[in-house]
Amino acid sequence: MLHTITFNPAVDLVMRTDELRLGELNRVQSADYVAGGKGINMSVLLKRLGHDNIATGFIGGFTGDFVKNNLQEEGVETAFVAVDAITRINVKLHTDQETEINANGPEVTQLDVDRLMAYFETVLVAGDVVFLAGNASPGMTSEHYVQVAAMCREKEALFVLDSNKELLTACLSEQPFLIKPNAHELSEIFGVAITTIAEVVTYAKELQVRGARNVLVSLGGDGAVLVTETGGVYQSNVPKGQVVNSVGAGDSMVAGFMAKYIETQDYAASLKQGAASGSATAFSVGIAEASLVSELLEQIKVKSVGVN
């Protein structure tokens, strides 16, 4: 089974207007409410690509009910731990540029974490895949991420991690199956300016030395680079299209990659679908439909990269 964890989900209020005038009354042309959070985005795309999965994490209040109902309408099973607070609401303003106002989210207690871990101790088996995506909720630390990673290693489940510098590096010793820093995050981790593909590969391999099995680095308009535990290095391009909304594109890349890997264990094919999935979401109002992912696959080229 596939499991996604979102420690700090949200309801994203996406509003569109031609112009934003600070200090004045602004009226929007359209508004949508979307269940948000990196793991939740992954759950949606995984299901749309034909993979059943269970979404977990912490939710509470009427907004938590919205998140759960939204996922269930997508056909995603949920097993969230209820917290005694209201799941946050984030505001996404789309004018001539994107502006995001993100709330902190509810405080998560050690008891809440213990309840989630007890659930996984019961259901997790060898061969399962656990996606842990996004940042920590208030009250949580990197140790909680390491706790999940260690449990996956003990249970022989594949652990997929997409988070910030501190949380990602804290888990490397537990040998995550896949991590996905972007080029900026890779630069932050090592404190250097990374400008070439050769440098991307060099530092991705350093993350492998520290424990990561496979490293997928997203490069925005320059595609993505994958360094595998079998010694392969691959690069993808990006398809042509109009970027509508970048939120969820990286999550979709990870979900698309793993969906294909589970089916084929083919790294090049997995990178191809990951790249198509990320772009498909970037070209969509919300998370991409499978039909658009399939359509964009024809434009994705994956090449083996020889780097000394």
Structural features, described:
There is one protein chain. With 308 residues, this protein is an alpha/beta fold. Helices cover 39% and strands 22% of the residues. The protein contains ten helices and 15 strands. β12 and β13 (224-227) form a beta hairpin.
User: What is the end-to-end distance?
Assistant: 38 Å
Low-confidence stretches: none
Q: Summarize the helix and strand pattern as letters.
A: EEEHEHEEEEHEHEHEHHEEEHHHE
- Percentage of residues in helical conformation: 25-40%
Indicate the radius of gyration in whole angstroms.
19 Å
| Biggest sheet layout | 11 strands, mixed
**Approximate strand percentage:** 15-25%
| Mean pLDDT level | 94
How many strands in all? 15
* Overall 3D form: globular
Number of helices: 10
- Structural class designation: alpha/beta
What is the element layout, followed by pairings?
Layout (H helix, E strand, L loop, with lengths): L1 E5 L3 E7 L13 E7 L1 H11 L4 E7 L1 H13 L3 E2 L2 E2 L5 E7 L3 E4 L8 H14 L5 E5 L8 H14 L2 E5 L2 H6 L7 E2 L3 H8 L6 H13 L4 E5 L5 E4 L5 E4 L12 H16 L2 H16 L7 H8 L4 E3 L4
Parallel strand pairs: 1-4, 1-9, 2-7, 4-5, 4-6, 9-10, 10-11, 11-12
Antiparallel strand pairs: 2-3, 7-8, 12-13, 13-14, 14-15
